[in-house]
Amino acid sequence: MRTLRIGTFSPSVVLGVATETGALGDAALAITQVPARSSPEQFTALLAGELDAVMTSPDNVLAYRFVADNPLGRTSDLRILAAVDRGLGLSLFAAPTVKDIDSLRGGVLAVDVPTSGFAFVAYELLARHGVRAGIDCEVIALGSTPRRAEALIEGRCTATVLNAGNDLRAEEGGCHRLSRAKELGPYAGTVLATTAEHEEEWLAALVRVIVETSARLASGDLHECASSITGKLMKLGDEDVRRYVQLLTDPEEGLVIDGRMDQEALDTLVRLRMRHHAGSAGLADALRRDPGLLDERFLPGSAS
Q1: Which pLDDT score, from 0 to 100, does residue 287 have?
Q2: Which pLDDT score is estimated for 300?
Q3: Structural domains in the chain, sorted by start
Q4: I want to staple 63 with a disulfide (CB 3.0 to 4.6 A). Which of 26, 70, 98, 154 is the partner?
Q5: Which pLDDT value is given to residue 303?
Q6: 110 and 4 in contact (C-beta within 8 Å)?
Q7: Mean pLDDT, the chain, as a whole number?
Q8: How far apart are CA 237 and CA 198, in angstroms?
């Protein structure tokens, strides 16, 4: 049995279900989910060998593979092994006292870090309504999605983007969902990623378990197990558990059944990054020169 340390932002229901059903055990794997306080912290730990892999925004992988002007100030040979979900409800949220996007003027937008990840979704959704992040509202770094949800509920920021059950907790706390990331086009919310140095045997087993478990969940199978795990990991009430488990099956925002990153979703990520980060101006060209971002060797149906 090999124990893997997997960095996560929000607790992974897919990994929880894979553990509960015995799928990980059958693959001779055990998982420790290591919560990240921020994406720079998560990738620092991954590059230092303190994590075996991460479940993260694919934009973070773009940043730390291609963009020298990233929070760590260096690039590394990082690979996306599988797409996991399409955002799981990723949306722009406002504090309980704010009723519409225009009211965010003069407020505070909380992000993980200002130059990667879901921050670009927030900037674009605001821009579509004439609100310029950093000009019409202040941008502050508050770290991971669960931390931002807590800050929004407590009124320590005016707006942020939330998903993966944190959005449901925010609604329960009186916050308002203003717009959804799916309005921007096909999107990938979470991927499994690691460095080039890790062993192929356990990578293949891990990818297989994640893809197979995701496919079963997306089909509506494992409903009872998914509900139990969601309740435990997310600390949601019964109605929010029902909504979250239903979201897993949604073709626009739910789980990816085959683990493959859609080209359209990758295009959305690249477009957002190039539009909202000056240091990413050459990203599209870099992707064409370096096809190694997507490592699909371990996905079902791929040639080994």
Answers
A1: 94
A2: 87
A3: 2-88+187-293 (3.40.190.10), 91-184 (3.40.190.10)
A4: 70
A5: 60
A6: no
A7: 95
A8: 39
